């Protein structure tokens, strides 16, 4: 059971693509800069959707970047192997992603002015998405039934630990100027208004045509067909593409 994961400070991580030394270094040594932008979420909250939106805000609605560069190069997950080393060397403003719980996130963030969006999704849909997605991945425990998945989810015996602890931890940051909470549900209900809120938070400006182009390219259909964003570029050794997809239902 537990041996299927890589454990760090009581939190289970997939045993493929993660190393204890990276997790330690990210927490204690990674230097967050004031001009950084970070997307933070519990897995299966719609992270890739938000990342596509962020990419298209940075490219002012021009789809070239999202159609030519994989998601993980546009906004790397700092806790994964080598990503934080590459990010440390990168000059200029950086955008990156993380699923880390607050206690494992780089300490330097809490004294910085770096902006962060915390993406929330209701736990019922996170759980369902988790059930269908993690069975495609290597290095992760695969539940036999939905009930077993539910039990593990409640126990926090899933990648990145308990959803409840994750939200409770990060939501303590609510009210800080550099911290914005966005929900999957509001993206779903009113994408345009929510994207406008994000643009404002980032201090960016998009004209009406740029915004329309962004909205077109972040639709479920557009992202499902974009191999730079739908994870189909991941090798079969990491994700079993014959068993399912990242963009499963999206509702
Ligand atoms: P479902 O499994 O419920 O379909 P994450 O990126 O954090 O792993 O989250 C994946 C979830 O976000 C999946 O949910 C996926 O379908 C949904 N998603 C991804 N892109 C989307 C989009 N453009 N519109 C709506 N939902 C999207």
Automatic annotation (TrEMBL):
Signal peptide: none
Coiled coil: none
Keywords: Transferase
Domain Sulfotransferase: 34-251
Enzyme class: transferase
InterPro entries named in the record: P-loop_NTPase (IPR027417), Sulfotransferase_dom (IPR000863)
Gene3D superfamilies with a match to the protein in the record: P-loop containing nucleotide triphosphate hydrolases (3.40.50.300)
Record EC number: 2.8.2.-
Pfam families reported in the protein's UniProt record: Sulfotransfer_1 (PF00685)
Family assignment from sequence similarity: Belongs to the sulfotransferase 1 family.
Protein name according to UniProt: Sulfotransferase
UniProt organism field: Echinops telfairi (Lesser hedgehog tenrec)
Classification lineage: Eukaryota, Metazoa, Chordata, Craniata, Vertebrata
């Amino acid at each position: 059971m537990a041996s299927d994961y890589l454990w760090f400070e009581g939190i289970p991580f997939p045993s493929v693509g993660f190393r204890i030394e990276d997790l330690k270094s990210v927490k204690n040594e990674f230097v967050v800069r004031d001009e950084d932008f970070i997307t933070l979420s519990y897995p299966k909250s719609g992270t890739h959707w938000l990342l596509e939106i962020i990419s298209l805000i940075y490219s002012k609605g021009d789809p070239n970047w999202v159609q030519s560069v994989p998601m993980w190069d546009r906004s790397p997950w700092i806790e994964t192997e080598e990503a934080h080393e590459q990010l440390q060397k990168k000059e200029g403003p950086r955008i990156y992603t993380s699923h880390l719980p607050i206690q494992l996130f780089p300490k330097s963030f809490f004294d910085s002015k770096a902006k962060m969006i915390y993406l929330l999704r209701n736990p019922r849909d996170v759980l369902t998405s988790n059930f269908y997605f993690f069975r495609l991945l290597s290095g992760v425990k695969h539940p036999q039934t939905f009930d077993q998945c539910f039990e593990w989810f409640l126990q926090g015996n899933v990648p990145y630990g308990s959803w409840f602890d994750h939200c409770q931890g990060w939501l303590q940051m609510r009210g800080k100027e550099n911290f914005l909470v966005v929900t999957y549900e509001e993206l779903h209900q009113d994408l345009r208004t929510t994207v406008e809120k994000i643009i404002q938070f980032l201090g960016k400006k998009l004209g009406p045509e740029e915004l329309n182009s962004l909205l077109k390219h972040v639709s479920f259909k557009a992202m499902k067909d974009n191999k730079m964003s739908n994870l189909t570029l991941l090798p079969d050794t990491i994700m079993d593409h014959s068993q399912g997809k990242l963009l499963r239902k999206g509702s």
